[in-house]
Amino acid sequence: MEITRRGDQISKREQTLETRAQKLEEKETEVQSGTKALKNQEQDMKNKEAKLSEEISALDQEKIELNNSKVELESLKATIEAEKQDLKQEIEDYRARTDSVQKEMEDFAQQKQMFETKWEILDKKRNVAEAKFKRVNETERFERWLEAEERRIKNMETEVQERCMKEGNVRMVHVASGDQVADIFTKSLPTVLFENIKKMIGMKDGKCFEFKGRIC
């Protein structure tokens, strides 16, 4: 369930990143259109400047007669210079916007790479979790089978014991808890009882030499 929730969150994040990428592409298209318009304006300004240069040349030739129009011409030149400055500022703004878009695209690429890395990690975790879940299921099935086998064997033992006792082939004899020498191999015992049973089976320093007890 946690993996599914995590996968949903990642899917939503991926959709958000794709939407953002589309917006960036739209913004880049808009900037390109603006660049084209600015280039057209720059060409128009160059054409105007060329035309004005021709007019200035003509006015220089008629400077004596057209002295009164000099002030207007200077004002027109100042206006053109201001427009050129504005155009330069627009170009700088466009370049700044282009750099910003480029930076956003780089950030998006980094985020996409991080997302892909996280997705790979989550996919590996999901595979590990599925493998663990499969092992748990196999373990549970094995334990159920083992329990069923133990019950079946226990029933068979009980049936054999009852039949042997009924036929007189086996005689049940009571053995006190302190004399159950097999307990030393099957459970944890107090020190005194452990030492007594060890002596009963003839064990010294972990080595069995002679069996002296009885197992029933």
Automatic annotation (TrEMBL):
* Example GO BP: nucleus organization
Query: Where are its TM segments located?
Result: none
Any GO CC annotation of this UniProt entry: nuclear lamina
Residues folding into a coiled coil are 139-166
Task: List the residue ranges of the region (Disordered).
Answer: 22-49
Q: Where is the composition biased (Basic and acidic residues)?
A: 39-49
**Annotated localization:** Nucleus lamina
Tell me the protein family, please: Belongs to the CRWN family.
**Name of this chain's protein:** Protein CROWDED NUCLEI 2
Query: What organism is the protein native to?
Result: Carex littledalei
Q: What is the lineage of its organism?
A: Eukaryota, Viridiplantae, Streptophyta, Embryophyta, Tracheophyta
